[in-house]
C-alpha cells in the first residue's frame, strides 16, 4: 500500500508539473524548468525513502545466540512441558545487567537496556529498538533508524504538492498575459 500511495502520488505530481510546463502553448518558463527539476528530485527522494522503509533496517532485534540465551527458567520449564507462554509477562533481567534488560516472551529474545525504547510490535510480531509507532500505510514499524526516511517521505509529499501547484500557477500566469497581449 505504501508503494502504491507513494508511486501514484509521484506519478500524478510529476505528470502535472511536466504537463503544465511542457504544454503546447505554455512556453517553458524559468520557474517551470525549476519546478520540473524539483519535482523529479522530490519524487526520487520519496521513492528511495520508501524503499528504505520497506527493506531497510527497522531496528528489529534479531535472534542470535547472544540475544536468545540464557533462557529464563520460567520460560524453559514451560517449553519443556509444552505449555503455552501466552499467560507469561515479559521477564525483567538481572539488576544492573544492561544487555539483558528484559526478556520478550513472544519473540524469546533479550532486549538490551541501552537500545532506546524497546517495544514488541503486535502487528509485526517482533521486538524493535527505538520504537516510535507502527505505520499502517507502509506496514512497517517506524523506529529511530528509519524515522528520517519516514519524515522525508511525508515532507516530499507536501513539497511535491507545492511544486506542482507553483508550476500550475506559473503556467496560468503566463497564458492570460499572452491572451491579453493578443487582444
Ligand atoms: Zn517481542
Ligand atoms: Zn510494527
Q: What does this protein structure show overall?
A:
This protein is α+β, with helices and mostly antiparallel strands and 183 residues long. The chain has 2 domains: 2-56 and 147-171; 65-143, no CATH class. The protein has 5 helices and 7 strands, in the order H-H-H-H-E-E-E-E-E-E-E-H. It has helices at 2-21, 30-55, 65-68, 73-80, 147-182, and strands spanning 91-92, 102-104, 109-111, 119-121, 126-128, 131-135, 140-143. Residues 104, 106-107, 120, 127 line the site of one zinc ion. It holds the Pfam family DHHC. It is found in: Endomembrane system.
Strand content: 5-15%
Radius of gyration: 25 Å
Strands of the largest sheet, in order across it? Answer: 1-2-3
Helix content: 40-55%
The kinds of small molecule bound in this structure are: zinc ion
Label the structural class: alpha+beta
The first-to-last residue Cα distance is: 50 Å
Q: What is the helix tally? A: 5
